[in-house]
Amino acid sequence: MIQETDLNYFRNWFDMYVKQFCTGNERIDSAICLKVKHTKNVVREILDIADTVNLDAETRSLAEIVALFHDIGRFKQYIKYGTYSDQKSEDHAKIGLDVIAHTGVFSRLPTYKQELIRNVIANHNRMSLPHSNDQKFLLLLKLLRDAVESHAIFT
Ligand SMILES: [Fe+2]
Q1: How far apart are CA 2 and CA 16, in angstroms?
Q2: Proportion of the chain in helix, strand, coil states, percent, rounded to 5
Q3: How far does residue 124's CA lie from ligand 1's centre (Å)?
Q4: Could you report the per-residue pLDDT of 113-137, keeping only the tens digit for each?
Q5: Is the whole model's pTM more than 0.85, yes or no?
């Protein structure tokens, strides 16, 4: 069961992680800030949806985590390529999975939950929903895509 202490850990981790990308360069910092705001908006939105449909506490926690980390690859992408265009750089979901693997941020979660979160992130920016028999995965992916769509500047 994901506890409030776990959620606080992830929220703090995110805030600490993004800080390193604030360089003092106005152009870069405003681009990074934009994506931080986008993430926080998506988190708020997904929790709104979760409460509207009365999601159970565990799924609500997973929803918050996928929202918080879905664009974690954006920061490296911008610093490395100077763009948020996946076409001009690389898939930001894939960069995010690399960040997650290298930092081990999800190591406090059981393996199957880590895998579930990674799969949702990997698929959040695909053109269409993948085929799957995993109802929890599909639910989280749909929630995330709906929450992102409500704040679609760059997904
Ligand atoms: Fe995204």
Answers
A1: 21
A2: 70, 0, 30
A3: 7
A4: 999 999 999 999 998 999 999 999 9
A5: yes
Q: How far is the CA of 62 from the centre of ligand 1 (A)?
A: 17
Q: For 20-72, how does the pLDDT look when each residue is reduced to its tens digit (9 = 90+)? A: 998 899 999 999 999 999 999 999 999 999 999 999 999 999 999 999 999 99
Taking the C-alpha atoms of residue 154 and residue 131, their distance in angstroms, rounded to an integer, is: 25
Query: Which domains are assigned to the chain?
Result: 4-149 (1.10.3210.10)
Range 85-89, long-range pairs (CB < 8 A, 24+ positions): 86/125
User: 41 alpha carbon to ligand 1 midpoint, in Å?
Assistant: 13
Task: Determine how many CB atoms are found less than 10 A away from the CB of residue 135.
Answer: 8
**Residues around the ion ligand 1 (C-beta < 5 A):** 71, 125, 155
The reported pLDDT for the residue numbered 114 is 98
Count Cα atoms within 13 angstroms, Cβ side, for 27: 4
